[in-house]
Each structure stands twice: as C-alpha cells, then as structure tokens.
Amino acid sequence: MSAKARPTYSAIAKAAGVSEATVSRVLNNDERVNPERTAAVMKAVEELGYRRHRAATALASGRTGLIAVVIDDDLSVFSDPFWGTVTSGISRVLMENHLQTVLMVTSVNSVDGPVAHYLEGREVDGAIFFQLHKDALVRKLAKQGLPIVITGSPHTDTDLYFVDTDNFGGGYAATKHLMSRGCKKVAIITGDIETTAGHQRLDGYNQVYREFGRVPNKSLIRQGDYSYESGQVQMEHLLAEHPDVDAVFACNDLMALGAIAAIEAAGKSVPDDVAVIGFDDSVSSRTSRPQLSTIRQDITALGEAAAELMIAQLNGEPVESRIMPVELVLRESA
After folding, report:
1. What domains are there in the chain, each with its CATH number?
2. Which of 59, 167, 172, 239 has its CA 20 to 30 A from that of 296?
3. What pTM, to 2 d.p., does this model score?
4. pLDDT for 103-141, tens place per residue?
5. Of 292, 287, 279, nearest in space to 331 by CA
6. H helices present in the chain, as ranges
7. How far apart are CA 296 and CA 287, in angstroms?
8. Is residue 168 a contact partner of residue 200, using CB atoms and an 8 Å limit?
9. Sheet holding 186-190: strands in order across?
C-alpha cells in the first residue's frame, strides 16, 4: 500500500482478523458487535490511519456530519470579537463529536432565499442560528423536522430550543450599580432592540429606574449597533444634549470603549465625570485604559451550550433550553 493510499475495509479486516462486514458494523457504531472484535477493528483503524469518507458515511447513516451556523449579516460579525468567540465554542464541541461546522453569514429574514433552500435540502443535519430579527424561517425549518438551536431567546413563547445569557439581569446589575454609587443621570446605549438581547438589557435598565422611583428621559436612551463607532457617536449625542450626564451603560464592550473615547475627547474623565459599564467582559475590557467595568458572560460557554443542545437533539436525548448566568465585574471605569 502506498503512503497516500486510503486503507480499505479489506485491509482493516485483514489486520484485525475479522470479516469486512464486521468492520462495516463497527465503523457504523453497531453496539451488537463483540467488544473484543470492536477493539481489534479500532486498533487496526488507528494503526492504518483510516479516516472515514464523509460522503460514504452520509449514505450509510443518513447523516451528513455537518451543522450549519447561520449568522445574520445585519450583525457586526467581523468587528465584534463576541461572534468569533461564540463560533469557536460551537465548533470545538461539534468537532469533539465528529461534526463539522458550515458557517453561513447572510440575511436570514427570507423564508424563500438561498439559506432557506440550502437548509431545506437537508445538506446539513441541523442549524444553529445566532440572534434573530425574525423567526419565520426557523419555525418553517423546525416544522420540516430540521433540528434547530437559537443563540438568543426567541421573540415569542415557542418550543424551539435556545441558549441565551441573562440579558435582563445584566442590564439590571449594571444600572443598579451606577445608581447606587450616586449617579443621577444614567444613560444607556443599546444594541439592536429588535433582538431579544437588546430589548432585555434595556428592560433591566428601565427596571432599576422604576425601583428608584424615577422615569428615564427618553433622550437618555440611545440605540447603537454594537460597533465601536456607534458607541462613540451616540455618546457624543448624549453629551451634546445632556452635558450633566454622569454615567452610561453601553450594551457591549465595543460600544463602551467608543463611549469612553467620546467622553475623553470632550475633555471629561472616566469615571470621575462619567462612569461607564459595558457588557461581555471581552479581552479589550481588560486591556483598555481605563480598564472597563463590565457584565461578564461566558461567551465560549454560550457557544458550547448551543452545540450541546444540537448534539442532544441529534442523539434523541432530552433537551432543555438554557439561560447562562452573568456577573458584574468592577474595574476602573465605574
């Protein structure tokens, strides 16, 4: 056999001292095979460097071994490290379970577009969707029997499986800390409030205002898009309209860092003049100057949990949606 030749079932069977039929049964996870024969086959597989042929395995099992990770292109995928970290967590768990990731960055609002056609064609065994603006497509695919996981809570009560962060709790904790330290005029720079995450973080902010017996001025609520630039621009607007604003909760770290840049450009200091809290606890929050106070969510674990929910569905195991906890991390900015 040449160095480049792919070991055949015949070669494996000869090395293991079993029939080719036994090799096939072992490689297709037939648990009825004698454990000693299974061990002999797996030893031969390792020694010969056999690797499964994905197409052949798909034909035999009815599975492709592929999971789509679908990211809405309205999200700042390539500027925000959050999405890359979540995807890394997903991919690691899938690979450990012999599954590969098919990354799709595209609009997912259409129920009749290229993404819909691809997924309806059963080119993959399941699909993990990132934060959704609309859920018509995932509902359609779920009705057709495709296993679905959403990272982010669905917009309505549903039997779709999802994994999410405690966004309300994070918004609440950040705003509560700012109010409790004596800040009188706390603003918020939200993300996309058409997503559940953006809306829930704003709800947490509003809840603290209610508990303090106050109503936030609507002009203290500014909508960003999770980018550094939007945090900077919205903070500039806040300072222009409210020169006495003394705190801001930005709904991710990138926007918080943009806000700090705008505050310092205006000749003010952080946190003496304006306290700032972000959301994510990204690497940049620890390396910025001043170091950023933030809401910590375990971003890698979020992706891992999404992959685990997908694997459980594929294996026919019990599945429950998950809400991951958050933690307020205080550093120099607040």
Report:
1. 9-51 (1.10.260.40), 66-165+299-324 (3.40.50.2300), 167-297 (3.40.50.2300)
2. 239
3. 0.75
4. 887 766 666 777 788 888 878 999 998 877 667 788 888
5. 292
6. 9-16, 20-27, 35-48, 54-61, 81-96, 114-120, 136-143, 167-180, 196-211, 228-241, 253-265, 283-287, 299-314
7. 15
8. yes
9. 221-223, 186-190, 247-250, 275-280, 293-297, 326-329
